[in-house]
Structures are given as C-alpha cells and as structure tokens.
Amino acid sequence: MEFAVFLDVDGVLNTRTTVKQTPYGYTGIDDARVEILAHALEKYGGGDIVLSSDWKELNPKHDDYVYLVSKLKKYGLEISGQTFDSNLERGKGIKEYLEQHSEIEEFVILDDMTFDFERYKKFWERLLLTNGIENVKFASRTPAVEAILFLNFIHVFL
What is the pTM for the complete model shown? Predict the structure, then answer.
C-alpha cells in the first residue's frame, strides 16, 4: 500500500510572513515547515511527495526549482512526481495522476486553496487546508482516516 502527499508549496511551506526569498526574489520556503512535513511523513510510515503546486511549472533546472528540491532534500524529502493541470483544476490533475499510479492507495492533499477539490468527494475528505502547515485544518466535516492521521502527526510535532 503506497501513500502520497499532494503538495502545494505557497501557503503550506511558506506564508505571507515568510521573510526568506527564492533565488528569483519570490517568497521562499521556511525550514521549520519542511521539517514538520518530514516529521509527519516519517510518523505516517513514509510516502511519496507529488507536486501539485504552481512550482511544478518551473523547469527542473530553474534556480527556484533547484532551491525547492534542496530545501526538501535537507530534511530527507524528494519530489517523486507532479500533476499536470491548470491552476484552477488541481483536483482534476490529482484524479488523472491517481489513475496513472494505481499503486497509490492512500493520500492527503496539502493546499491553502480549495480549487475544484469539492467536486471530488474522495479529495475533499483528504484535503488539509493550510495557512502554513502548522495552521492546518480539515476541509471536510467528515475527513478520511488518512487526513485525520496525517493532521495528528503534524500536531504531535508542534
């Protein structure tokens, strides 16, 4: 059974209060937030990180993408895949990714926006809404077990 985290970056690993910047001068990534993600993944038993963020549109050789990869690597994390979708249809992109990766049986979505997730009941129940990973809450009133466990592992670290 394989587990995956569909990861947005902005609003999860950074917020408006983040002072660090990327090489291109955009909002950077907070080490403490990456550490929380790494800890939660470790407690869950490991899993893949699938980039669902706008950052996926960067060329892998782009300095900001290299920066993201290096921040994750610092805590033993790596990107194993990415979704392909437009910014407003992240749910559709995740649906297509899961159809192509039947080995993924459990997953959560970390994002600060709801996009089209509510159209997909299974996604809505696994969506953890953030304002920084430390400020995470369930999107659904009836969250899936994966979301409950993952949120608990985040809170244990705080």
Answer: 0.97
